[in-house]
Amino acid sequence: MTPGATHAQQFAKDGFCLFSNVLDAEFCGQIAHDVISEYDRLVSAGWKFAAGGRYTGHLNFSPGLYGQELLDMLDSKGFLKIAEAVLGGPVALFGVVGNMNLPQSVAQDIHQDWAPPGESMVFNIGLVPTTRENGPTEIVPGSQGSRFTYTSLHLSGTRRKSLFWEPAAGDLIMRLGSVWHRGTENRSANPRPMLSVIVVPRDGEQAPPPKIPVSDRITFSANRFYGRAARARELASIYLAWPMHWLRLARGR
């Protein structure tokens, strides 16, 4: 794939691009099977999750040996070149991470992964068919960069332009890390895993992407709450969603 003006225009307009059938569906299904099997094994062994999964629909996992394979596939298909063209220079790997949206989760608060003026490129890879039932990603076109705060995103009516990414296995969304988005609730009976490859601008001369330190196992880690009163804020955003929403609007953030 050759980076072109069309991609640059699409990112400038919407902050993301959608691609179909990027990876083999059977390969993605195998990753999903292995991830869910490992999760089931941990639960059967009595592992308890402090947070994530049902709180905000995201339980972190490392894809093990699959991580390097996925990065190599994206590189060979020209997607890292697109990231370089959009971000304006060579990129460095920030990480390869998965998240699993567990049944009966609640929707995340809408947010930016990267706070401007910083920027990144996030490759979200669908591992299983995803619909409004099992937790698609909601994304706001044209909300990248410093164009909006939480308040202006809502008061301008831009939030109402949200789209829901409902990928088949092997589909890909490339999005700038500063695009406003959120994971939505999983109302199905099955976990919904997804993978993300994240790259950031890198200073210096062009060089191959760094190798990913990998183990031979898929590993899970419960999300942690960060900062003073972070857990209280997280739970309040879920169980007191509307009061928290109006508070943020009033504070202008």
Query: Going across the major beta sheet, what is the strand order?
Result: 1-7-4-9-3-2-10
Could you say how many structural domains there are in total?
1
Give the name of the CATH superfamily: q2cbj1_9rhob like domain
CATH class: Mainly Beta
According to CATH, the fold-level topology is Jelly Rolls
Helix content range of the residues, please? 25-40%
Tell me, rounded to a whole number, the average pLDDT: 87
Number of helices: 7
Class from helix and strand fractions: alpha+beta
Biggest β-sheet strands, sense, barrel: 7 strands, antiparallel
Polypeptide structure, described:
This protein has helices spanning 5-14, 25-44, 66-76, 79-87, 150-155, 230-239, 241-251, and strands spanning 16-19, 59-62, 91-101, 121-126, 137-139, 163-165, 172-176, 181-183, 192-201, 219-221. The radius of gyration is 18 Å and the shape is globular. The chain has 253 residues and is of the alpha+beta class. It starts with a helix and ends with a helix. It has a single domain, classed as Jelly Rolls, CATH 2.60.120.
Protein topology:
Blueprint: H1 5-14, E1 16-19, H2 25-44, E2 59-62, H3 66-76, H4 79-87, E3 91-101, E4 121-126, E5 137-139, H5 150-155, E6 163-165, E7 172-176, E8 181-183, E9 192-201, E10 219-221, H6 230-239, H7 241-251
Antiparallel strand pairs: 1-7, 2-3, 2-10, 3-9, 4-7, 4-9, 5-6, 5-8
Helix pairs in contact: 6-7
